[in-house]
């Protein structure tokens, strides 16, 4: 089965240590499974206001193709599994 196009968006901040750890985990998974990664700093204009307001106290937050996937901690195995499920079904299942 061909992979579906995937974009992961990481809502982050330059002062957030959990965000740095989350990005490192995402990049490790990206080496195994191709997807586009977009990192948006919630404190900069690049981030839509609705998300900067919504996630102000919850970063890091990860979206898969514009749908909420997970927040706070990104576990590589769970992220990889979620991406595989998306490839198979086209559905984004939130990581718990």
TrEMBL record:
Family assignment from sequence similarity: Belongs to the glutaredoxin family.
Taxonomy of the source species: Eukaryota, Fungi, Fungi incertae sedis, Mucoromycota, Mucoromycotina
A Pfam family matched in the record: Glrx-like
Entries under InterPro entries matching the protein: Glutaredoxin-like (IPR008554), Glutaredoxin-like_YDR286C (IPR052565), Thioredoxin-like_sf (IPR036249)
PANTHER family on file: GLUTAREDOXIN-LIKE PROTEIN C5ORF63 HOMOLOG
Source domain of life: Eukaryota
Protein name per its UniProtKB record: Glutaredoxin-like protein
Coiled-coil features, chain-numbered ranges: none
Annotated keywords: Electron transport, Transport
